[in-house]
Amino acid sequence: MVEPNKSWVYRRSVFVRFLRSENGRIFVTGCLLLICGISVLGFMAYHRYPSWQHLFTMAVAHMAAGKAVSVVQGLSVGLHPVVILLLATMSDIILMLIVYPVFVFTYEHFFESHMFQKHMRPLFESAYKRMDRIGRFKMLGVFIIVWLPLWMTGVVVGSILGYLIGLRARETLTAAALGTLTSITVWLFFSNQILSAAGWVDNRVVGFGFFAMIIVLLGIRRSQRRRAQCR
């Protein structure tokens, strides 16, 4: 009888333990929401709803470059502010529900692994730097760090901060979700005011500025990851 590969058995057991844990249930919820969102966009594309391309572009921009860029992009193509608010908030929540449990599990079991050091360490360091200033406020601190309309203070960093300061998963996710909802509302208000004041600007200029912003932000993110890996 051939013995099963021990490494494969170990990986399977780790994966099973993860899915049976609270973090596993959070991860599955995030994946199901992601599948639902993709299915809705696919349904709209199949039936050729006029706005599906704008929704898809905004969702991709949100995942790639953050809420500030996605909100401006949504407003520039004429999406309703309520639609922008719901889509941007759900995109952030889905991202948090997927990344947060993976971070917690790899932090607890594979802190020294190549996967953690390459993909999770920059998020860990970004959250860790804010522990002294924000950590003492607990849930309010998580809310503030997510609400602040600054680069690298989003929902993922906020949720990881919540874990590092000892909050329960439910408290962390609630505070981060409320923070991102408030933050997106602020971005939506000020972006709408700016675009309304600059209504004379040609749409092609807005589109060019939007894509230029994405390229710049992606370049900054890539540079930060490289610096973090070189440490």
Distance between the termini: 47 Å
Mean pLDDT: 77
Shape: globular
Structural class: mainly alpha
Q: Strand-residue fraction?
A: under 5%
- Describe the main β-sheet briefly: none
Count of discrete structural domains: 1
Count of runs of 4 or more consecutive helical residues: 11
Secondary-structure blueprint:
Elements: H1 6-20, H2 22-46, H3 52-65, H4 67-76, H5 81-109, H6 114-128, H7 131-134, H8 139-147, H9 155-164, H10 169-197, H11 203-230
How would you characterize this protein structure?
With 231 residues, this protein is mainly alpha-helical. The chain has one domain (6-230). The protein is 81% helix and 0% strand. It contains 11 helices and no strands. It starts with 5 loop residues before the first helix and ends with a helix.
List keywords for this structure.
about 230 residues, 11 helices, single chain, mainly alpha, about 0% strand
Summarize the structure.
This protein is mainly α and 231 residues long. The chain has helices at residues 6-20, 22-46, 52-65, 67-76, 81-109, 114-128, 131-134, 139-147, 155-164, 169-197, 203-230. It has one domain (6-230).
